[in-house]
Amino acid sequence: MTLLTTENLKKYFGETRAVDGVTLTINQGEVLSLVGPNGAGKTTLVNLISGLIRPPDAGKILFQDTDVTFMPPQDRIRVGIARSFQIVNLFDQLTALDNIRLAIFSRKGKTKSLLRLAENDREVREEALEILDQFGIEDKRNIVAGGLAQGERKLLDVAVAYALRPTLLLLDEPTSGVSTRDKGKIMDTISGVVRSGQITAAIVEHDMDVVFTYSDRIVVMHQGKVLADGTPDEIRTNEEVTITLLGTSKADWSEYRTH
After folding, report:
1. Whole-angstrom Cα distance, residue 105 to residue 6?
2. 125: pLDDT strictly greater than 60
3. Which of 34, 176, 182, 236 has its Cα between 20 and 30 A from that of 86?
4. d(CA 195, CA 130)
5. Taking the CB of residue 181, how many other CB atoms lie within 10 A of it?
6. What is the pLDDT of residues 2-43, one digit of tens each?
């Protein structure tokens, strides 16, 4: 079942065609990866879907058959679209627990005196602790976000977005800036939470080991357009993709990084 569709979506910045006529579907329950070199348009596409950039220069975005093209970000969150960021977007002076509680209160529309209310709301506290536990960082609940290790900050950032209880979760490079050893741990956690919660995820990612391991479907972008769309096996053996991204027809993805 189709959850989100973009139709001939375009966004230009001067002469740069960041997103250039992208028609894309995201299906309910899948983990979709968006890949491509720097400047391919991946993050701009995610920004258009989340409403961080709006409006597009052309095209439309349909979410569960509702036109959200001109909808502001906060309204998109309400209908079920949430995202994390490549550069972690946390309240660094607040604890991990308070970051999650703020997200829950925001979801519930309780936006005044949030922390004071949170202290007196056992239900919100229990939900926040449960989410921290799902992401494997419950023991860090009383540590300020700025004092967490980079991998823990990445998990907390995704956990904050998850606390909004989205139908579609957009993740912008959830493993960037962490060690190779920690990438698998982070993605195991995220993948487990997403799949157990029956959430659809669209992930911008550069590490192809991560992409091939955790994706149901991969969309390859190049110069603002969709170059290919298929299963991990189909993308791995797609000669046009390997030539474009690797510069050779030999499909050796082990060294593919764009930063």
Report:
1. 31
2. yes
3. 236
4. 16
5. 8
6. 999 999 999 999 999 999 999 999 999 999 999 998 889 999
Name the nearest CA neighbour of 220 among 232, 208, 228, 212. 228
> What pLDDT was estimated at residue 259?
41
Which whole number is the average pLDDT over 179-203? 89
Q: Does the N-terminal peptide bond of residue 37 adopt cis geometry, omega within 30 degrees of 0?
A: no
Q: Which residues contact 13 (CB under 8 A, 6 or more apart)?
A: none
By the 10 Å C-beta count (0-12 exposed, 13-18 middle, 19+ buried), 30 is classed as: middle
Q: Which CATH number fits domain 2-91+166-246: 3.40.50.300, 3.40.50.11030, 1.10.150.120, 3.20.20.140?
A: 3.40.50.300
Q: Which residue has the tokens 């920690």?
A: 182
The residue that leads in pLDDT, 71 or 106, is: 71
Written as six digits, the tokens of 189 are: 């956690």
CA distances from 31 to 6, 95, 140, 146, 195 (A): 17, 30, 28, 29, 8
Chain centroid to Cα 259, Å, comes to 18
> What is the rounded distance in angstroms from the CA atom of residue 244 to the CA atom of residue 230?
16
- For residue 166, give the DSSP letter: -
pLDDT at 115: 55
Q: pLDDT, tens digit, for every residue of 93-107?
A: 999 999 999 888 888
How far is C-alpha 188 from the chain's CA centre? 15
How far CA 100 is from CA of 1, 133, 157, in Å, comes to 31, 12, 9
For the chain, what are the domain ranges? 2-91+166-246
Q: Tell me the C-alpha distance between 43 and 20, whole Å.
A: 13
**Which of 187, 120, 191 lies closest to 154 in space, CA to CA?**
187
